[in-house]
Amino acid sequence: MPDLTTSYLGLKLKNPLVASASPLSKHVDLVRRMEESGAAAVVLYSLFEEQILHESLSLDHYLTHGSESYPEALSYFPDLDHYNLHPDVYLEHLRRCKEAVEIPVIGSLNGISRGGWVEYARKIQEAGADALELNIYFVPTDPELSGAELEQNYVELVQAVRSQISIPLAVKLSPFFTSLPNMARRFAAAGANGLVLFNRFYQPDFDLESLEVVPSITLSTSADLRLPLRWIAILYGRVEADLALTSGVHTADDVVKAMMAGAKVAMMASELLQHGIRRLVVDGIDGFADAAIRPGRLNRLLAALFNELRAEGVTSLWTRSTTELFNASLRLPASAGAELVDNLIYLRYVELHSQLYRLISVLKMRESGYDPAIHEFRISSEGIAVQPTSESAESILRQALRLASTSPVRRRNRPRS
Fold first, then answer.
1. Quick one: 29 and 113 in the same domain?
2. Residue 245 domain flag
3. Considering the entire predicted model, what is its pTM?
4. Residues 208-214: contacts with CB within 8 Å, 24+ apart?
């Protein structure tokens, strides 16, 4: 089994899967479920500049200048009173999330102007965030504002936020820069430790029934992966900052492609929003067997339950204990439902020279090839590591069987010829 650990923003992660900012992270229990489902880190829902200041003069100028004849233009932007958390509530939510999970929790700030609001970057750090993601959300409407001026404002904003914190800083970018490689280098020089490619923006649409302009956002698909994939491949090795890919990550193949391009992590939100966080662990199928009034119908019950879980898109993991804690030979328990599951994995202990060894083997993987060899696996403070070859497991089993065959108890129990 390959080592999936990675490093992003100086944080050591157990794998490259990161839950990006979305409404799911507004709830502590969902953040906990993300961790339980395998997320290596979580980016919290964004705290907006407008919510901190209640009214940003510079933002008001940029949004309203030149748009007086188009009053509906301001409705292009989300209703922030319903879109996010109050600043103080956000900080408390961050503290609670940190207490609830062991994976890194990354705070998120969304803004475009310099000012007193950037002090909240420091407050997010003090609340316990492991890192901060700066989400630059800005649609220029002023024809007098040049691209060079806007880009310089971005760089100065990153510098201002960087001056407030000592934790790692990532900048989430849009793909609309004239020279993205140049801006990437400028952001890194301004203090960004990582760059997240790319942001997804609210887009205006017309409601033909109400004849109003409404804001909307379209969730990504795997087809959206191509744009950030291309730019990460271009930037890899040319910018002194970690690269994160977001937008279009829906499948394992998408994650592999992100790593091949040079990303340190792959971030997902749309997949989680569309299908939820669905993983069920039942620690002990024996409980179902013990509680069955009619044991002969147990397999029918499990078959119906498994099919319902599949229909709901829930990945389930069921465990069954063996009656022997230590053994060198393969002795499977008679397991109810074994013929119903898609995959069957066998874990066992082997005692050798007063030391316990853990072995793992795949016994079944439906409609897929798999490695049938027995492997040793070790659990340490660094996580679970499965040995890449079966050599160590073979040596352990060989010695254990040799000792078992020569033990006094075994010799006394041998039948006489």
1. yes
2. yes
3. 0.65
4. 212/72, 212/75, 213/72, 213/73, 213/75, 213/76, 214/75
Tokens of 321: 């204990």
Pairing label, strands 343-352, 355-365: antiparallel
| Torsion angle, alpha carbons of 239, 245, 246, 249, to 10 | 170
What is the residue range of 50's domain? 6-275
Residue 389 and residue 376: Cα distance in Å, rounded?
8
Nearest C-alpha neighbor of 267 from the set 2, 9, 1:
9
Residue 75 contacts residue 215 (beta carbons within 8 Å): yes
194 with 103, same domain? Answer: yes
Which of 105-114, 238-247, 248-257 holds the top average pLDDT?
A: 238-247
- Residues 267, 277: Cα–Cα separation, whole Å: 15
> Token pair of 355, please?
């030391």
Tell me, what CATH number does 112's domain have? 3.20.20.70
pLDDT tens column, 318-367 = 777 766 555 555 555 555 556 778 888 888 888 888 888 999 988 888 87
Q: Before 48, cis peptide (omega within 30)?
A: no
Tally of structural domains, the chain: 2
Distance (Å, whole) CA 289 – CA 280? 18
Is 282 part of any domain?
no
